[in-house]
Amino acid sequence: MQHAVGAPLPPPHHPGHAATGWMNQPAAHHPGPPPPQGPPAPPAAAPVPAPPAAPAAPVPPGWTPPGAPAAPVPPGWTPPGAPPRDATGHIHLPPGAPVAAPAPPPPADHGGTGAATLAVLLIGPAGAGKTTVARYWANNRRVPTAHISLDDVREWVRAGFADPQDGWNDQSEAQYRLARRTCGFAARNFLANGISCILDDAVFPDRPVVGLGGWKRHVGPGLLPVVLLPGLEIVLERNAERSGNRRLSDEEVAGIHGRMAGWYGSGLPIIDNSKYDVETTARVLDDVLARAIASPPAF
């Protein structure tokens, strides 16, 4: 609603007076006495300036407020500085490529495996000294070498461990196969990072597909198997010195040793360490492996 020029302004609102609005004022064309004037209103206080706003805290990259939907992640995206999805250590691993056959050592070498990077499978019955010889050989090479014990990996299972001494069943077979695959992956992982490895296992010649063939599938065609097979009396004597679930009955040891004799005539190198100490056996193993590098056994 418009007012004529010169119309009086609405009176200010004072304490004790009812508020009046534009709709309650007399119209401009109704002249009348001016409304009574009260005391002048006190001057309005100067407005207090608001304090300066604090600078906003930096927001970390990728942060979203609580409750807000997360931003979609592009396929294949990894955080800055994160290692590749299929990398271990500092080496980009190939997608499951098996280890190739090692190259022969240089002619100027002392005659053993020298600085060759290789994967070895040491086969033998319980009490043959596989673990002791494998650990000694790995400790005394001039290049980085790892020892992977199948029994140690199998015993990583604590609750629900299927002890073969209580009877071989489906559960103990499943844990054995799982431990073998784990050892095979560990061997390929070490080899991909330039570290040789030696594995030890009681592989039976009458189960080639499950035993030796399984190791070849898990590690690769470059795997070098060697059989450690001392006489039965030596195996029984060493087994008697064991304790815990590593010790078997004499009947079990004799049965395993008899099955291991099937490796004779298989073409695999066999070491009879009945009269060798650990150091001598490791040196013989190194020489046998050097010959196997030059002429890998067919298996």
Architecture overview:
- With 299 residues, the protein is α/β, with parallel strands linked by helices.
- It has a domain at 119-294: Rossmann fold.
- It is built from seven helices and seven strands.
- The protein has helices at residues 130-139, 150-154, 170-192, 212-219, 232-240, 250-260, 278-294, and strands spanning 87-88, 91-92, 119-123, 145-149, 196-201, 224-228, 270-271.
- The strands form two sheets. A five-stranded parallel beta sheet has the order 4-5-3-6-7, with helices on both faces.
- Helix 1 (130-139) packs across helix 7 (278-294), helix 3 (170-192) packs parallel to helix 4 and helix 5 (232-240) runs antiparallel to helix 6 (250-260).
- The longest helix has 23 residues, at 170-192.
- The termini are far apart.
- Residues 1-7, 13-31 and 104-109 have low confidence and may be disordered.
What would you say about this model in short?
The protein has 299 residues and is an alpha/beta fold.
